[in-house]
Amino acid sequence: MDICEVYLFIINNIFRTEFLWCWYTLVYKDRYGRPLEALRLIVTQRCNYTCTFCHREGDLYNGRSELKLKHYEVLARGARGVGVVEYKLTGGEPLLRNDIAEIIRILVKYSAKVSLTTNGSLLKQKAAELADSGLHHINVSLHSLRKDKFKEITGGDLSSVLEGVETALSYGLKTKINTVILKENLDEIDDIIEYASNKGIDVNLIQLMPVFYYERDPVRRVELYRKLNGDVWLIEEGLRKKASRIELRQPHNRTVYVMPSGIEVTVIKGYSNPFACITCTRMRITHDGLIKTCLYRENPVVDLRECLEKEDEVCVQRRLLEALMLREPGFKLPYQLSFTSQSPGLSRREGSQMGE
User: Fold this and answer.
1) What is the pTM of this model?
2) What mean pLDDT, rounded, does the chain reach?
C-alpha cells in the first residue's frame, strides 16, 4: 500500500465522523509543488451567446450527457478528501441549467467557497434563487457598454445584462465584472471601470487567451488571436497612473489596482504571466466528467464518469490524485524544468487567499 492509499484509507475510515475537517490541514502536491485547492466545474456546454473569443473552458470533448445532481454530490464528497476547498461554476452558460441552484447548494456543504461566472443574460430571472443558494459571488461578463458593440462581440443583448446586474445587487449578491481586453473595447475600459465604481463592484480585466474552441487550425488560430487581442500592457500603464494603491495577490500572481473609488481592478494575464502557472491550484471538470489538468493542454485528461456513476467517492479521490500527478504548468520558467523528478507528497497547508 503506497502513501496515497494510506492517506485515503485514513480519511475515509478513521477520521470520517470525529474529525470531519481534518483533511483541511493536509494536501497533496503535484510534481511542481502545487496543491489542488480549487475545481472549475464546466456544468454545461450549452450557451445562448456567440462570443468571438470563446474558449469554452477548454471543454472540447463531446459525446456524453451533462453530469447530474447526484454526480456533483459524489464529486464534492470525494474532492474534499484530497484538499479541494473552492469551486467555480462555468460553461457554456451555467444559468441555462434549471438545477444550477441545487448544484450550488450541494457544493457549499463540502467547501469554503462557491462562485459562478455568467454572461448575465438570465441573471434577472435567476438572481433570487442564486442569492438563496449560498453562492459566494458571481462574475458577470461585460465586454462593452455600447449596445451595438456588445452585440457584435457576444451576439447578446446589453440591456438584459445590465438589468441582471441591478437585480443581483438588489438581492445582496456579491457581484464582479469580467471584461476580456480586446481591440474592439480598448477605448471602453475606462468607461467600464467608471460603471463598476458607480455600482461599487470590482472588475477583472482579462487578457485574451489563444484558445478558440471553434478554430482548430493552428495557423488561423494565431491570425484570429492577432485580430482580436487588445494591449493589456497599455491598459496597465493607465491603471498605474490612476490607482491609489497597487497590490500583488496570490495565488495566480495577479496585480490588483485599488482605484480612488475603492473598487479593485484585477488584471488577469493567463497567457503572458508564467508566475500564474507556478501558483495555479486548480483543475477543470468538463460537463461530462473528465478531469482537465490545464486550459492550454488537451491531454492528459482523466475520466471520472465511472466513479460518479458508481457513487464511489474513493474512486473520485484516486482519479483526482492521478490527474494531479499528471498536471504540468501551461507555461514554465527555466528553473521549473528540474522539478519534474520531484516526488509528490503530503505537506502542511499554508494560509493563503483563495482565487476569485
Assistant:
1) 0.85
2) 86
